[in-house]
Amino acid sequence: MFKVVASDLDGTLLSPTHDLTELAVETLKQLHQKGVHVILATGRNHVDVSGIRARVGIDAHIITSNGALVENVSGQVIISHTIEEELVHDLLDVVLDDKEILTNAYRADEWFMSQDYPGVKQYFPNSDFTYKLFDESKTISTDSVYKIFYVSRNQEKLLQLEKQLLEKYGNRAYICFSSPLSLEVMSPHVSKGNALEQVVELLGHTMQDVIAFGDSMNDLEMLSRVGKGMIMENGQQRLKDQLPNNQIIGSHEHDAVIHHLREIFNIQ
């Protein structure tokens, strides 16, 4: 029996409206009561994820910004990797004048965006966490930046940007897609897999004791290293191609993670 459950949020544990269903909240509580460690592993900011954890009402470690910042069950930061300041400056400038691509940064407890985009609030239905615009000089302070990410409806542009960033900064950064419309950049030491392994060790377990769920390329390292890594039916084809031996379960639209957990852990 698995001792640890690790799950991505958007496209995985959360519904298409980016919220937890009542069944999900109840199931996570029942897992906690059974002594199973629940870990939320996401590209989201720790401020936002802390609110999701509070809503569930359980002691859970949270892996945020794809592993750049990790909090223990008490909200204490136990892992922190920021992007080197010189690189932050370059990454903020790379597509700043492209109106089709929104440049974003998670800096400490704040979220900055290059252009106003109210539609993004649909991703945070129960959270007050929101963005600030870059200042008039179109920049921000370059210290304490955990993640820079680029959002666009033009996926071809993001794929071109991924290639450009990998060629220029691939040895200085971890670059991945968290969805087809979001390309993300962190410190080279960062991945959900690395962070999860450290947390699991602190809990006294190994990665073989973990069952994990994900849907995107930022879940690759996590899903490839655990005892059982499950890919969502709605997951990125690129992820499925990279992990051809991993089981594919149903869609987040139908609470597939929760139904799978209830079956595995015999929750009635």
From TrEMBL:
Pfam families: Hydrolase_3. The keyword Hydrolase applies. Transmembrane segments: none annotated. It comes from the Eukaryota. One of its GO terms (molecular function) is metal ion binding. Its cofactor is Mg(2+). Keywords: Hydrolase, Magnesium, Metal-binding. InterPro entries: Cof (IPR000150), HAD-like_sf (IPR036412), HAD-SF_hydro_IIB (IPR006379), HAD_sf (IPR023214). SUPFAM superfamilies: HAD-like. CDD domains: HAD_Pase. Belongs to the HAD-like hydrolase superfamily. Cof family. NCBIfam families: Cof-subfamily, HAD-SF-IIB. This is Uncharacterized protein. It comes from Heterostelium pallidum (strain ATCC 26659 / Pp 5 / PN500) (Cellular slime mold). The lineage of its organism: Eukaryota, Amoebozoa, Evosea, Eumycetozoa, Dictyostelia.
